[in-house]
């Protein structure tokens, strides 16, 4: 299976990687829907409710308590999957990474062409004056974080439920997928829309799915690998060509 993947990579010159939470689990970041992951924690409200725009507006104290506790992960480092994808970009084989993750680990690994569909915890802005704040400002604040300049609420640049995806990011991701010769889907069960719907724009030669559970794209895929993605993309299993 892995050898077949390496053969596809070797003859591709415009790969796009479309990834989800499973890419970061090997870096110690919990999968939103796995057992003991974000969706199995005990809070007064379900995570989908807490992570909504309405809840952020109406219950900001509880939103930020949950956000600091569950979405800001300290000390996470890129794993073998992040590093391999960055290497493929440097080699000129990978055109872009399209990610549903908000942890910034693709950039930390060295990837440059990254479309963050759901934003990033590393960017935070004052809702009143627009001043930028890093992740530590939110992590180290208490209650509702306020701008040091104007006193406005500092909001994470993360797409909450009820909010639309950034149009510029969306169009860039669609364009990359549309022009890819190989699309590798990894670490996502393709259940979160509209993000998951982007793969319908792929018209290239090879569709590869690397995910522990079945996905809606398996039937159309040339190759399905049910293994941890860091293990699959590890440099240890590359082909001698």
UniProtKB/TrEMBL annotation:
NAD(+) binds at residues 21, 25, 32-33, 100, 102-103, 118, 188-189, 211, 229. Pfam families: SIR2 (PF02146). Its cofactor is Zn(2+). It is found in: Cytoplasm. It catalyses: N(6)-acetyl-L-lysyl-[protein] + NAD(+) + H2O = 2''-O-acetyl-ADP-D-ribose + nicotinamide + L-lysyl-[protein]. Belongs to the sirtuin family. Class U subfamily. NAD-dependent protein deacetylase which modulates the activities of several enzymes which are inactive in their acetylated form. This is NAD-dependent protein deacetylase. It comes from Faecalibacterium taiwanense. The lineage of its organism: Bacteria, Bacillati, Bacillota, Clostridia, Eubacteriales. The gene is cobB.
